[in-house]
Write a structure and sequence with these properties.
The protein has 376 residues and is mainly β. The protein has one domain: Methylamine Dehydrogenase, Chain H, CATH 2.130.10.10. The chain is 0% helix and 44% strand. The strands form seven sheets. The chain has a five-stranded antiparallel sheet, with no helix packed on it. A hairpin with a 4-residue loop joins β23 and β24. The protein starts with 10 loop residues before the first strand and ends in a 15-residue tail after the last strand. The N terminus is likely disordered.
Length: 376
Amino acid sequence: MLAVVTAVFAVTHLSPHDRGGHVVGKAPVSQQLTEDSVPHGVTTGPVDVYAHTRVGDLTAATRSVPYLLYVPESAGRGVDVVDPRTLRVIGHYPTGLDPQHVVPSYDLRTLWSTNDLANTVTPFDPRTGRPRGPAVAVNDPYNMYFLPGGKLAMVVQEQLQTLAFYDAQTMAPVSQTKVDCAGVDHADFTADEKTLVASCEFSHRLLRLDVASQKVTGYLDLPRSSPQDVRLTPDGKHFLVADKTLGGVTVIDAQHFRRTGFIATGADAHGIYPSRDGRLMYVSNRGAGTISVVDPVQLKVVATWRLPGGGSPDMGGVSPDGRYLWLSGRYDATLYEISTSDGHLVAQVHVPAKPHGVCVWPQPGRYSLGHTGNMR
């Protein structure tokens, strides 16, 4: 096991609040999708994609796991672990050059640091908050997802323009799919989990993948775009695609794989996260220093939260109790804690070297489809 290097960085407190971090009151679960009940690429309402990600809906694998934040230093060689109650960095662990995201495994028992330029992934044990063992060799692991059922991990190889499939437990290579997609980046699945849509950051397009065959079934060109994060709306009808260049969110019909609209949010729109009650989606606008609150039914911005003095809100997730949105400040060496009740900045924690794909853990949900916590 790697040695622990304990560090304490500067903390800015902006508002007092309860840091107990307790998960409260399990919310009622809305109508669920049943496996094989929905035709390929089609959803029938009412559908609630995030029905099992409500407050308190933790599994046996996550119920006794300590509440921690895992912060990859994308311009460094390690992951900082932050205690959200004390707002202190309680450990720094070497992983390898350019860790981009910390990704929960499908079975929720491992957190993987994707060390892009080191060509490795490092397993963390969420029960201890420390690496579980040595890094495992994996080519160009910019990001990682898991195919439904949890047998295969899909490594997003951005530089190699490849989606590579590995055994989810051993990380032994299984197969790969070359894609006509410069800068393949982020992804999400349809409500029936039979189709995946991924962004192609440098080629102004999206790709569609058939999950069963792992074959590309189409591309959708989005002229002048630079698509980033991809998230399915709670009703399963649309993919929202954050767009860095266009400064907003492109709306994609999930069934027909076509552009149907655009929601202006702010410069360098980057990450998208559903609220714990599934009624809102938070869009981080990295270049504007804002977070846009989007109604995923009306497909419009209902609030805009501004970080004091600006900032560079990037990737992260919602706290288990739904009260806070945690985001990395990619170009400001900081981690933001934002109240989801009114959007005020609660606190900041200094973390160096361009913090990127922060994993807030544990999170409610039955399983993880990857990224920093695409939970279902």
